[in-house]
Amino acid sequence: MNPVGVVLTHTREGFSFVTKHSFASGEFVYYRLGGDRVLARVRHTEPLRDYPVEFLLDPEVDAGDVAVFYGLDASDYQFYRAHARVVGYFDRIVNEFINPRVMPLSGTRIERVDDTILSDVNRVSASEVGSAHIGTILGTKTDAVLSVREMVSQHLSIIAATGAGKSYTVGVIVEELISAKNMASVLIFDPHGEYGVLSDIQNDHSFWEEEYRPRVRIVKPEQIKIRVGDLTPGDFISIMDEGNMSEKMKTLFMRAYESLKKDEKRLTRSFTKNELRETIEGLSDGTNEPSIAGLLWRYDRMVREKIFDDYRSIPLREYFQPGLLTIMDVSGIGEWKQQWIATILLRQLFDAREGTDNERYSEERRPERYLPHPVFVILEEAHRFAPQTGDAKSRQILKKILSEGRKFGIGVCMVSQRPSKLDADALSQCMTQVTMRIINPSDQKQIGESIESVSRDLLDELSALARGQAITSGVAINTPIIVEIRERRTTQIRGTSKDAPRVWREQMQDERSETIETRPSYELDVGV
Fold first, then answer.
1. What is the percent of the chain with per-residue pLDDT over 90, rounded to a whole number?
2. Report for 346-350, 457-461, 495-499: range of highest mean pLDDT
3. Helix and strand element counts for the chain (H, E)
4. Whole-number Å distance between alpha carbons of 178 and 197
5. 8-state DSSP, 387
6. Bridge partners, 410 (sequence order)
7. What does the CA dihedral 475, 478, 482, 486 come to, rounded to 10 degrees?
8. Phi, psi of 174, deg, nearest 5
9. Number of C-beta neighbours around residue 68 at 10 A
């Protein structure tokens, strides 16, 4: 036994105990109930007794010395009242914590947890297949481990304010996914080009095991193309229409598009930009020339964008393979184009996995759409692709995958620093959450409304979390915990803040060196 306190009283929300230890919010203790050890989480602590105000009036004199002078025991003022919430005892049959619905009586001993008890918060151990070791539980040396199966199948959110360690944490999770324990098929949609440093993984021997070596593929912006034949009529109209496209133009375009799709000669391949243009021109009947001209002007302006191509598209089979991390660098591409790339990628991915599972696609039939394994997509700046307000064409397909993707083995990780700008329904579909420091009140409110598994007392800790600490909750772990994120094994992500004073000084020193090296020398001509 390792007693650290005694229960004072309890309420419907929890219990309080007297202790000499200053517990941090989120730390765990336990008490015994029959043969069970009931885990409880500390919510906050406060002094049990305060010194009389008169003892504190002179800061030069120690309050404890004053207490002794008056015949009081100074140690009486060194106790805390700690408030805790019951988590429950771990039932190995159902493999989860069971709340006993009985609060401990006054006088019950409270004990400090050890690794044996605390390891029950993890669904899996750090060394087994399907595990992701992301750090240690706050205040302990106990591993914090997520179940990859639950995390991938039921989606993940990583939420943090700028500078809290969001990108670093993504890197830690990617290291775990791509390790030999998991050999995952992962794609990072990277709007800022900050994850390229993860290419170090494929050359790091610590990731190698027997015949397994992870691979990393970086797709540069100029390599990304959208095939025009992969766009729907609604896609075309949405891109072309800036609010002044007439209903007649839309009707004419729909007619041209559908006529191409019905042409049996073209069923073996997608139509080209010129073929669609010629079909639009062919709709001219002598009375609709102004509408045709306006439609062609809009169409030509659209297809001049280099991102649209006749034949090249997003090669799913090349981007998604077990043991392969694909980093899709979309930095330098306009935000609306990023949204369209995400839309086409997610739409084709859903179609490929659904069609493969339902045996519409096979290696013999439609091999480019045959995708026989689960996949995981990490979406940075997720609020761009599923915003709470405003229009984003990617929102509809993203929400469809979040709600239906589990059936077909498509997992999504939504990463954002502004949850208040992220669609609430989309966020609530992420059943595992890694939430780091959040200061903005509206962001905190959104998290509280969208994440059911986190109690109010843990949400109150969001603004106090240190860099690299995270509240981890949801189906990939047995109970919410505060985690100290482990050190990365690979190079630091470039998303970290710049050390401006250091860069300024280095720049000035470089400029001074160049000035000295290039300064012309002159001989002093002294007349005699």
1. 67
2. 346-350
3. 15, 20
4. 15
5. B
6. 375
7. -80
8. -65, -40
9. 12
For residue 209, give the nearest of 181, 185, 186 by alpha carbon: 181
Tell me the CB-side half-sphere exposure of residue 494, using CA atoms within 13 A: 10
Going by pLDDT thresholds of 50, 70 and 90, the confidence category of residue 13 is confident
Helix axes 233-240, 335-357, angle to 10 degrees: 170
Residue 265 has pLDDT above 90, yes or no: no
Report residue 288 as tokens.
């609709």
Supply 450's token pair.
């969208």
The answer, yes or no, to whether residue 173 has pLDDT greater than 70, is: yes
Q: What are the sequence ranges of the domains in the chain?
A: 3-113, 131-224+314-485, 228-306
Domain 131-224+314-485 classification at class level? alpha beta
Of 377, 395, 402, residue with least CA distance to 327? 377
Torsion of CA 427, 433, 435, 438, to 10 degrees: 20
Q: What is the pLDDT of residues 312-365, one digit of tens each?
A: 999 999 999 999 999 999 998 988 899 999 999 999 999 999 999 999 999 998
Instruction: Report H helices in 135-288.
Output: 148-153, 166-178, 233-240, 247-262, 273-281
Counting every residue written for the chain, the total comes to 528
| Residue 467 burial (CB count, 10 A) | 13
Q: How far apart are CA 117 and CA 114, in angstroms?
A: 6
DSSP string, 347-374: HHHHHHHHHHHTTS--SSSSGGG---S-
CA 477 to CA 391: how far, in whole Å? Answer: 35
Q: In the 8-state DSSP scheme, what is residue 212?
A: B
Tokens for 452?
């059911």
Q: What is the pLDDT of residues 49-64, one digit of tens each?
A: 999 999 999 999 999 9
Please give the model's pTM, rounded to 2 decimal places.
0.87
